[in-house]
Amino acid sequence: MINVIKYLLSIFVMLSPIFNLKAQNLNIDLREVNLAYKNARSISADVEVLVYSRNDVTNTRVFLGRFFKSGLNYYSGIMDVFYLKNARCSIILDKNLRYVQYAGTKKTLAGPSTLPDFESQVDSLQKQIKSFNLISKSSRSISYRAFLLDKSIVEYIDITISLPGYTLGELVYYYQKDFETERVSVKYKNVTLNEVIPEGDFSEYKFIKYVNGKIVPAEPYKNYRLIIK
């Protein structure tokens, strides 16, 4: 199941409109989203992932996360995997595998695919969508149904863009019928642009500390394996 969700979150980087008349409105709206994120001094949002079972409507799994970015500083966490980057270091902490990975200024750790990066998501909406239809439009949002060129796993995706700020509101992935998962919803809540994010929110001391000049995991993670790159 975790691998399925990782696939869904990483597929963001493979979506894109084909440039035709039917796709023109979505293409324009995605450009507006792209501009909103690229021009923002800071971005923050809560992330909610809901996984719906096809055969058991009572079995819905929920994963909550948080994302924020200011300049070159970045923090994100979902499914108990956390990524932090600032001017001094980059860190990955995985509560599932119980390790802390640290890199100083000479090397930057790549963020896990489970962690959303709005800019890379929107930048990559370019090659995988065959066609799409408008679902609804109001003063607060606009929604499209996008059909993929490759339907082997996901048949189509519903994309909701929040207005008037043009930010991603929700992505819903609908699986082919032979998959146990019927659909996965990724919701972005409390999205804010250009607000001041305290420097302390990007502090590495959430995850590590120094003892006698050596890096060790912070107290809550003192039994985790430490990997220094």
Descriptive report:
The chain is mostly beta strands. The protein has a single domain, classed as Lipoprotein localisation LolA/LolB/LppX (outer membrane lipoprotein receptor (LolB), chain A, Clam). It contains three helices and 14 strands. It has helices spanning 2-10, 24-39, 118-123, and strands at residues 42-53, 60-70, 73-78, 81-85, 90-94, 99-103, 129-137, 141-148, 154-162, 167-175, 181-193, 208-211, 214-217, 225-228. The chain has a twelve-stranded mixed β-sheet. A two-stranded antiparallel ribbon has the order 12-13. β2 and β3 form a beta hairpin. The longest helix has 16 residues, at 24-39. It starts with a helix and ends with a strand. Mean pLDDT is 84; it is low at 9-24.
Short description, anyone?
This protein is 14% helix and 45% strand. With 229 residues, the chain is mostly beta strands. Strand 2 (60-70) and strand 3 (73-78) form a beta hairpin.
